[in-house]
Design goal:
Elements: E1 2-6, E2 9-15, E3 18-23, H1 40-43, E4 50-53, E5 56-59, E6 62-65, E7 77-80, E8 83-87, E9 106-110, E10 114-116, E11 131-133, E12 138-143, H2 148-159, E13 173-174, H3 182-194, E14 201-204, H4 227-236, E15 240-245, H5 258-273, E16 278-281, H6 298-318, E17 329-332, E18 336-337, E19 340-341, E20 354-356, H7 364-379, E21 384-386, H8 398-409, H9 434-449, H10 451-464, E22 469-470, H11 480-484, E23 489-491, E24 495-497, E25 506-507, E26 513-523, E27 533-537, E28 541-545, E29 558-567, E30 572-579, E31 582-586, E32 589-594, E33 601-608, E34 613-622, E35 626-635, E36 643-646, E37 650-653, E38 659-661, E39 664-667, E40 677-680, E41 684-687, E42 701-706, E43 714-720, E44 733-743, E45 748-753, E46 757-759, E47 768-776, E48 781-789, E49 792-794, E50 797-799, E51 819-827, E52 832-840
Parallel strand pairs: 13-14, 14-15, 15-16, 16-17, 17-20, 20-21, 42-47
Antiparallel strand pairs: 1-2, 2-3, 3-12, 4-5, 5-6, 6-7, 7-8, 9-12, 10-11, 18-19, 22-23, 23-24, 24-40, 25-35, 26-27, 26-29, 28-35, 29-34, 30-33, 30-35, 31-32, 31-34, 36-39, 37-38, 37-40, 41-42, 43-44, 44-45, 44-46, 45-52, 47-51, 48-49, 48-52, 50-51
Helix pairs in contact: 5-6, 8-9
């Protein structure tokens, strides 16, 4: 690190890509770790190359220019190759990163508000107290050259890496807002086993406790007479348990108050001590933790304290501050409010594993919205965005339920969830029919087979910030169509997923408003008395968490009348998204009367004709917690087959076996058991075998599923560790690289398994592996002539097309065509080169 001081401003060149610009606060500079920049010392590179000339600091081809006697940072300018590319300004922290196709040369991360974390962290045993400074000028410039991947690598180095979740966290979940008894909860496990469904986690929602308000930490002994014994019985079936918590602040204190820290640590750890595995911090309630600063919301601070308290518990349990059980938690995304994406508020929130999008419904638009949330979250390095799969509320029919489960099994965290009241069925497939059970089982098993790929990508995410499930733009940054896709995504670099869903409603904007939205607010929920405030909006897009819509309006328990006129140049369906209730009139006709208290719902109001003006009046009431009132619409279009955009390359539809060239849209009808799922040709996909849970699934037997194609190639790595602890951070893991290509000289497709590197301890460790190489005979291949391993002939088996086979299976057959398999006993310390000599179609 090198530093230069100009008056009241300091420039620190931490390495050749990260430069800090700081103005003195309270007449001094600051050099410690903070909440937003937790590993300051690790950033410092002794090999930096910088120089100073008058007020110009040069770092590579960047120059930071500022006055010799600078008193503020707003005079600081950054030039690249002599051209101005950034001008410093006062800013607050944000976690919303520029989109992949719109990455600047220089991106600034603000450490404002600055929170100094005491030694020992969030614990009653800490040394010192948290210090919160608002309105500081302290920014870190990431010199990323417009490279969005490099930006995110620098971003996670600076702000903290996304920790690897336990492998079991990536397995299947059962989640339900339901007052289980211990016997009912254990029956859920029996139901999964009885239907041959894998399961790794069960959620006991807020009714595990005695307090009817949903807070406190006393176990409800009427439902769970022996909670410790219950947890032990669940663990005996290799299933982990998560409790939901709506934390009530201690006497209204903020999260850094000593009495709040002591109470929260004691309360959370006493449940961990009897066997609880995971906490779910849920701010979707009438109460929420209190932030000491407006600059960081309670969602992010809640993630921090639940994570830190859990971490301290596992460190104490293991007697080791470096190697301990991974402290997985779940919390609300900051800031996706009950499915509605606003923006990511904090550059710290991506560090924490599971993040949930709130209480949602189950219709096609909600499903589409959750696909969008996954994609947008991935762009901000939030790797494990997850939905209430199937919807917290609502009653999906058979097809929609299956489409939800298809998406869920191929999303970061597969957690079917619902409430217990007002539903026809809960989110278990056996509440439908046998066909549904069979289809959803296939997708559950597919997820478990893909865990080697998902887990490998999880480690890559820890290192680079690149999520396992990500927008197409991560792989195709020069493809404008790929950059614009929000309804499909990649798993790694080889699997493209396009869930079958509806279309999220769009907010009615100024273009379609004939008149502004006139808003009249009232105290109380009944629109009575004199108005307390009146204003106008250019659109109705209210989406608030524990915040008043206007200074003159209370945070909770108010009502409002919204009036406007709308006009569209095409037929649309008008939709009101609302939390809580509302009445709606269109041209004086009552079209909605919803007087209930509930989370955000989409109400379909009416189909509006094109080129006609409609008067709209909405009487809305807010009864606590979130406030949502959004006037939206969907275009009325004829029902069409699902369409998927395929970027550059060649792609295989894994269900019908058809191969497509990229840079095009493809569309077809899909049966209930099918979905748009494509493999990039040339790919190798490591597959594990089906298992009832991740604790018994071992990767000492794998299938390398190979999709050969001339002109296409692949390279990748299989990552392994103990799946439970933080030992991976100390280098305790193994990587096994592989590659695939076509050898023109030999006329052979080649799959190479390199010798493994590294080692780790535990039940998942071994020195040899039984591998099946399964090569799909694609359209280019007529037959396989022979197969060699390290230049020696080996036997192989030909398997005819099996139209009943499910994609990406460890079985020998495949629906997309014939396959050839070769069995290998692999010594992981050695290299294996497998060559498939083929006769190509059209050859004599």
């Amino acid at each position: 690190m090198e530093q230069y001081i100009f008056g009241q401003v300091r420039v620190q060149v931490l390495d050749n890509r990260v430069v800090r610009i700081e103005r003195k606060s309270k007449d001094k500079f600051f050099d410690g770790d903070t909440f937003l920049v937790p590993c300051h010392a690790e950033l410092c590179d002794n090999a930096v190359c910088s120089s100073v000339d008058c007020g110009n600091v040069t770092v590579g081809n960047y120059t930071i220019c500022l006055p010799q006697d600078a008193t503020t940072i707003d005079k600081v300018v950054v030039c690249k190759d002599g051209k101005e590319v950034y001008k410093c300004e006062k800013t607050t922290n944000s976690g919303e990163l520029p989109l992949p196709g719109n990455t600047p040369c220089v991106y600034a991360v603000s450490d404002n508000p600055r929170i100094v974390v005491p030694e020992g962290g969030y614990s009653a045993g800490r040394k010192g107290e948290y210090v919160v400074e608002d309105d500081v000028d302290d920014i870190y410039l990431l010199l990323c050259d417009g490279d969005f991947k490099l930006l995110r690598q620098l971003y996670v180095r600076l702000t903290g890496r996304c920790e690897m979740p336990r492998l079991s966290t990536l397995g299947a979940w059962n989640s339900k807002y339901y007052p289980y008894t211990d016997k009912e909860a254990l029956q859920v496990l029996d139901d999964y086993a009885g239907h041959d469904y894998p399961l790794d986690n069960i959620v006991i929602d807020t009714d595990w406790r005695t307090d009817v308000n949903g807070w406190g930490y006393d176990v409800n002994t009427k439902l769970f007479p022996d909670m410790k014994g219950f947890l032990a019985k669940v663990h005996a079936q290799n299933v982990d348990v998560m409790f939901n918590d709506h934390p009530e602040p201690v006497d209204g204190a903020n999260v850094f108050d000593p009495k709040e820290i002591a109470y929260r640590e004691r309360s959370l750890q006493q449940l961990l001590d009897i066997g609880l595995d995971t906490w779910w911090y849920d701010r979707n309630w009438l109460t929420a933790l209190v932030s000491p600063t407006k600059g960081i919301k309670c969602e992010t601070l809640g993630m921090y304290l639940f994570y830190d308290i859990t971490r301290h518990f596992y460190q104490k349990q293991s007697g080791n501050n470096e190697i301990y059980r991974r402290p997985d938690i779940m919390a609300n995304v900051d800031n996706i409010a009950n499915g509605t994406y606003v923006s990511i508020n904090s550059s710290a929130s991506h560090r924490y594993p599971m993040q949930w999008t709130g209480d949602i419904l189950s219709d096609e638009g909600d499903l589409a919205q959750e696909v969008h949330n996954l994609v947008r979250g991935s762009n901000n390095c939030i790797a494990y965005v997850n939905a209430d799969c199937g919807g917290h509320g609502g009653n999906p029919d058979k097809e929609l339920f299956i489409r939800w489960m298809q998406f869920g099994t191929l999303s970061p965290v597969f957690r079917p969830h619902c409430m217990h009241g007002g539903l026809v069925r809960t989110r278990e497939a056996w509440n439908y029919d046998e066909e549904t059970v069979d289809i959803v089982r296939e997708y559950n098993n597919l997820r478990y087979r893909l865990l080697p790929e998902i887990y490998t990508q999880a480690h890559n995410c820890y290192v680079t910030g690149e999520p396992p499930f990500k927008a197409l733009g991560w792989n195709y940054p020069d493809d404008k169509k790929a950059l614009g896709c929000v309804d499909e995504y990649m798993i790694g670099r080889n699997l493209l997923v396009s869930p079958i869903a509806g279309t999220p409603p769009k907010v009615v904007d100024e273009q379609n408003l004939v008149t502004p939205v006139r808003a009249t607010y009232f105290d109380g929920t009944e629109l009575k008395g004199e108005p307390i405030f009146e204003t106008e909006y250019n659109k109705l897009e209210m989406n608030l968490n524990n915040v008043a819509p206007e200074k003159q309006v209370p945070v909770y328990n108010y009502s409002a009348r919204f009036e406007t006129s709308v006009r569209f140049d095409k037929a649309v369906e008008l939709v009101l998204r609302v939390d809580d209730g509302a009445k709606v009139w269109i041209d004086d006709e009552l079209v909605l009367a919803d007087e209930r208290f509930h989370s955000a719902l989409n109400h379909k109001l009416a189909v509006l004709e094109q080129s006609r003006t409609y008067r709209v009046k909405i009487d809305y009431f807010q009864g606590g917690a979130q406030a949502v009132a959004m006037l939206c619409y969907n275009e009325v279009v004829p029902q069409q087959n699902p369409t998927t955009y395929l970027p550059e390359g060649k792609w295989l539809d894994v269900f019908d076996g058809k191969m497509y060239d990229g840079n095009r849209n493809v569309s077809r009808a899909y049966a209930l058991n099918e979905m748009p799922l494509f493999v990039r040709m040339g790919a190798v996909v490591p597959l594990a075998y089906n298992a009832p849970n991740t604790k018994v699934q071992k990767w000492d037997k794998l299938v390398y599923d190979f999709y050969p194609c001339k002109g296409c190639s692949d390279s990748g790595v299989l990552y392994e560790d103990d799946t439970e602890t933080t030992a991976y951070k100390t280098g305790k893991y193994r990587t096994s690289e592989y590659s695939a290509n076509y050898d023109d000289i030999d006329g052979a497709f080649v799959l190479t398994l390199e010798a493994s590197k590294g080692e780790f301890d535990g039940k998942k460790a071994f020195n040899s592996r039984k591998c099946t190489v399964k090569m799909h005979l694609t359209q280019q291949i007529d037959k396989v002539l022979c197969v060699t391993v390290n230049d020696k002939d080996v036997p192989f088996e030909l398997h005819k097309t099996d139209k009943q086979a499910f994609p990406l299976t460890t079985a020998c057959g495949a629906a997309d065509g014939d396959t050839v398999t070769v069995e290998l006993d692999v010594d992981l310390s050695k290299r294996y080169c497998v060559k498939f000599f083929v006769e190509q179609r059209g050859e004599v």
